[in-house]
Amino acid sequence: MQSPHPSPCALPPSLTVNPRLLPPLYLPLLAILLMFGCGYLAYHLSEQAGLRALADSGERQLELHARTVESAISTHTYLPSLLELEDGVSRLLLAPSEARRTRVNQYLEGLNQRSGSRAIYLLDRSGRVVATSNWRDADSFQGEDLSFRAYFQDALQGKPGRFYGVGSTTGEAGYYLAHGLRHDGQIIGVAVVKIRLDPLEQRWQRAQLQAFVSDDNGIVILSSDPARRFKSVLPLDAARRAQLAASLQYHWTRFEELQPLGRERLSADTELLTLAGANGARPLAYLAQTLSLNDPPWQFTLLSPVQEVRRAATSHGLLAAVAFALLAFLLIAWNERRKVLATRLAAREALEQANSQLERRITERTEHLRASNEHLKAQIRERRQAEESLRRTQDDLVQAGKLAVIGQMSTCIAHELNQPLAALRTLSGNTVRFLARGDSATASSNLQTIGELVDHMGRITASLRAFARRSDDRGEAELGKAVDAALFLLHPRLERTPLQIHRACADARLAIDQTRLEQILVNLIVNAADAMSAQADRQLWLAGQVDDGHYRLSVRDNGPGVPPALRGQLFEPFFTTKPGEQGLGLGLTLSASLAAAAGGSLAASHPDEGGTVFELRLPLLPPSPAESPRDE
């Protein structure tokens, strides 16, 4: 009696799929959230570490520059008291006369020159200047009434006079050091030394340092950015503004508050500030660190840009997110592999159990295993085919990249050989006609010119190869010969579109290959001719001059000029304002690269009267021994 055929629905429990092994729908969303969370955490940690490093570096610079400000002032603190040792000063204050005034003026003038101060002057007890180091100048302090100045009033009371302000006579800012001069225990006058602190600002600007100094009124008196000078770092009410204006300490300055767009306090003397950019530029974030000076009681603030820190933090966040995504992908792949292995093991155990229990089903189970094996082999073949297809796709992408490079080089070569080919076509046609007329001399001259053009084309291709290899960028070229060659190559084109050329450039020997200089000139003249093609009056100026070991050649046209919105893209590859069939946008890019490779530059300017000016700046070669003057 045969046993009934088992139902296909009655599978062993070991072969059923556990619903818990199926990936829930929320797992991908959770993985994405974790990826973003990991990226944000890495960004935050990197930003905090970068800000700490920036703060540590800023503290060292802050201390150094703050001490520099104090040193610039302390080197002159002895000067006012030094005048007590000069008998002529006391005699002038006790018994003024023109002769004594002249001697003291001369003494103060010499002392001012030796000390490097801005001015040294002497006031009597009424606050009027009786002698000054700038007595020879038109804006001399002689006779000025400065009794309203705070430093005079402090010095008259025996206190050290320290004051920053804008001079009422010259309108020039400076720091004033005042000292009461005594005679027999009585103060008979006040000596004042004015020093300039703007050299500190110039030093900060050369070092590209963002910093400013605010005085005890909260007014910025020194700043590497002139736009921040005389702005208030503290809120000013109407009464405070009126008080500062009445003191004339800052002359007729109209006070404005330095209001940041954003502010985050990090510590007692450190905060993150977001300040508006100059001339409408985008806002910039700075790490602001402040240090109080010992003498005078000012605040030195250092602004360190945090753009690089945040850019690095963004890179670290992206790397962390990508690393997490890769790890999640590997974990998912491992889990899928584990489930496949678990399914196979369950199938094998079920087959062994069925074989031990039902011998009559051995053949059926064997066929089932064979089918499963074939299915696995088919999957392996499909996977191998997919891998092979992926490799072929990668090879195609590499080949496409190579073809793109070859296409770009072919475009450059075609662009540069276009004019010589046109000249060859014209000369060859003329040679045939001259040979037909029997004019062998002209035909021979044309053939010789054709040979020179062929050699020139060979030099162009060799120059392009050398340019591509970035090797042998130096050479020797004659400017006059290069201009003549460029105009000769463009002669057929200039006959179709005539223009008047004003040539005012002396011959010079330049440190660039002759062919490369001709390439640059051809590109600039062609661009000018194309820009003026739609107008009747076409003018082109070639002017040159020597400038500090370099030669500056300007190529100017009277065309319509370049629209302001497109001026920033002039030297970008494949950018052109011409129709697609007339230009590829590689001429200016190639010209600028050739100039830079020779140690020069190519820049564009746009005059108000119209047209466009391209300025080519190349280093000059020293005169050859044959050109150097010889002694008789």
TrEMBL record:
EC number: 2.7.13.3
The Histidine kinase domain, residue ranges: 412-622
Coiled coil: 341-396
Membrane-traversing stretches: 25-43, 317-334
Pfam families linked: dCache_1, HATPase_c
InterPro entries, per database record: dCache_1 (IPR033479), HATPase_dom (IPR003594), His_kinase_dom (IPR005467), HisK_dim/P_dom (IPR003661), Sig_transdc_His_kinase_DctB (IPR017055)
UniProt signal peptide: none
Protein name per Swiss-Prot or TrEMBL: histidine kinase
Native source species: Geopseudomonas aromaticivorans
